[in-house]
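U., I forgot to send this yesterday:
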Amino acid sequence: MIVTAEKISKGSFFKLTLTAFSLGFLLFFLICGIAATFGAETVSWDNQPVKGIKGLLVALMMWPFFSFLMTAFLWCFGVVGLWLYSFYKPLKIEFKGETTTES
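Result:
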């Protein structure tokens, strides 16, 4: 299914961006935390490496803050870019695995 839209709402774009970054960064922070559990210096707090189970916990505590901040920062640029693009032509989005919901 292909949807053509003149503009995408700011809220929808934020949800899409937050979902993508949150899940992507979860994998990254989980890998860094597991590596810290086995002694790698992949997690640091206050310029000090954190190792062991504490490193895993610190990585998982950092994950939501980092995800939200990166999402908010990049969302600001994305909203402006999509707004400028909307003057050029409509945006076509292709969905796979179509489902219908009644509202």
